[in-house]
Design brief:
It is built from eleven helices and twelve strands. By secondary structure, it is of the alpha/beta class. The protein has three domains: 121 residues, 4-hydroxy-3-methylbut-2-enyl diphosphate reductase, catalytic domain (Cobalt-precorrin-4 Transmethylase, domain 1); 85 residues, Rossmann fold; 85 residues, Cobalt-precorrin-4 Transmethylase, domain 1. A five-stranded parallel beta sheet has the order 10-9-11-1-12, with helices on both faces. The chain has a four-stranded parallel beta sheet with strand order 3-2-4-5.
């Protein structure tokens, strides 16, 4: 498909003098079902209850999304003690929260809505089940990430052991190798996690894993698309935020899959145009918390400077959706 070229006659002459650019556009890309649901929860709460609506932590890791919701009346905080006594809804982010957070909200009689991704909630349930079975729990994930904090916070402090790398897995010493299990963050590199799991299984053959992979379908699909595209591209751009785990992993996957020039970009305004000299084929994808409007913005920016042809590389179909909280279902016009 050909993108229309924008600008005046002088800019069009400049475009025609430049070499053509082929953009390979990953599909699937961008919003996953959990992110879509979380944003809907904030928007529907604003529609039903009016502004303000308080949100603990960024609802998803994307500044454009957060700023958009702020403009509609959402107020973002990091902790509940930043919220005054209020009847306004308080929403927990898609990443999940420790059990102490809803407990504190209940103690203050705050009305809260939980936007935790159901696939993250699945990991929480697994952790609780393993704890009830008196198993020692390993969580494969990144220290300090909100999802990891939320998952570890489902159980008493010290119950869950965090492993971030193969080196951690090699050095880990369980209390009882026969009573060991692992769970994972949902937004990890599939390949890196497989390497860690291989080490754990080789050292502890009795270790119990999830019945179904904890890394979510969207993370897996987006990484698979990047692997296929990487070798065809001179450069790849991942649209996403620096604090978005799944977006950062896409950059790493691209680099490991044959495209050493892979970069994370939040907005088209961040592009350094000198870096694209000699690039004939550019790959573009987006992390699961990046809206499609930012991908369009990026392509339009290239179309203003190059004769651009866009080709979609489709590697999977996604038709997953998650139910909204009961309190908001009557506010959904669909």
């Amino acid at each position: 498909m050909k993108r229309s070229e924008k600008g005046n006659e002088n800019s069009e002459a400049t475009i025609s003098d430049r070499p053509p650019l082929t953009i390979l556009l990953a599909a699937p890309r961008g919003f996953c079902a959990g992110v879509d649901r979380a944003i809907q929860i904030v928007e529907l709460a604003l529609r039903k209850y009016g502004a303000p609506v308080y949100v603990r932590h960024e609802i998803v890791h994307n500044r454009y999304v957060v700023d958009s919701l702020c403009s509609k009346g959402a107020i973002f905080v990091e902790e509940l003690d930043e919220i005054p006594d209020t009847d306004a809804p308080v929403i927990f982010s898609a990443h999940g929260v420790p059990k102490s957070v809803p407990e504190a909200a209940e103690k203050r009689k705050l009305f809260f809505l939980d936007a935790t991704c159901p696939l993250v909630s699945k990991v929480h349930i697994e952790a609780e089940r393993h704890h009830e079975q008196d198993l020692e729990i390993i969580l494969i994930g990144h220290k300090g990430h909100p999802e990891v904090i939320g998952t570890m916070g489902q159980l008493p402090e010290g119950t869950v052991r965090l492993i971030e790398s193969v080196e951690d897995a090699l050095g880990f010493e369980p209390a009882d190798p026969e009573r060991l299990t692992y769970i994972t963050q949902t937004t990890l590199s599939v390949d890196d996690t497989d390497e860690i799991v291989k080490v754990l299984r080789s050292r502890f053959p009795s270790i119990i894993g999830p019945r179904k992979d904890d890394i979510c379908y969207a993370t897996t699909n987006r990484q698979a698309a990047v692997k296929i595209m990487a070798a065809q591209c001179d450069m790849m751009i991942v649209v996403g935020a620096p604090n978005s785990s799944n977006s950062q992993r896409l950059v790493e996957v691209a680099q490991k899959s044959g495209c050493s020039k892979a970069y994370l970009v939040q907005r088209a305004s961040e592009l350094e145009w000198d870096a694209f000299a000699g690039v004939a084929t550019l790959g573009i994808t987006a992390g699961a918390s990046a809206p499609e409007i930012l991908v369009d913005e990026l392509i339009d920016a290239f179309s203003e400077r190059y004769p651009v042809t866009v080709e979609t590389i489709k590697t999977a179909d996604e038709n997953i959706s998650f139910k909204l909280p009961r309190a908001l279902r009557d506010a959904d016009p669909r």
